[in-house]
Amino acid sequence: MTPLFVFQLRRVARNRQFLFFTVLLPALFTVFFTKVFAGTPDGVSPEQAAGTMVAMMAYGAIGAALGATIRLSFDRASGWLRQLRVTPVPQTAVVAVDVAVGMLLTLPPLVVVALTGRFVNGVHLRPVEWAGLVGVLWLGSAVFVALGLLLGWALETKAAGGATGIVATVLAALGGLWVPVELFPSGLRAVAHGLPSYWYAQAGYAAAGGQLPPGAAVAALAGFAAAFGGLAVLVARRRPLTAVAG
Description:
Strand content: under 5%
Number of helices: 13
Structural class: mainly alpha
Number of strands: 0
Mean pLDDT: 88
Order of helices and strands: HHHHHHHHHHHHH
Shape: globular
């Protein structure tokens, strides 16, 4: 564990708003959707509780991935990236640390929402299914880490914070994480199928059922990750190390 990795991790971990919105809020949504908004005294069925749990795990991981990596825009504005450039730390190591921090910080919402599903809603999965679910969603979160890096390099500080919330909301709402895609009009269903959040959730649903993620989901997530990562590299090469004033 390098000093730079520890430093960057502590920077994000000290942000209480980040911890609330990415860890506690998805767990609260899990309870609200299954207990408060269920429409029945006993709450939703076990199958619905499991589906809601997976959707909120995906939602929390997306928010964590974007929130952990969007800070690149703030690092450019503060001159931190320029300072790193004159240190002996290679640029590849700086990028690797950003990716590692983003990936690591997607784990807390995955685990906390899974625990909420298990102990609040009584979701029962076999140990191998729990491990597969968390593992699949953790690996899949690389797509949104890459997206966060792209946004962090492309946007200025004033736009970055708001963009994170908007992008996460759009991905959750139109990707079927808040309302099942089956309830969408046909036009919105087509939109959902074009979003990484939809395929991310599909991979999670399969893992929760003890199955391998569908090939279409794997292919879609790999394609999105490659596209976002490639664009992030292109933008990073063309952007200054400090944000433009104004």
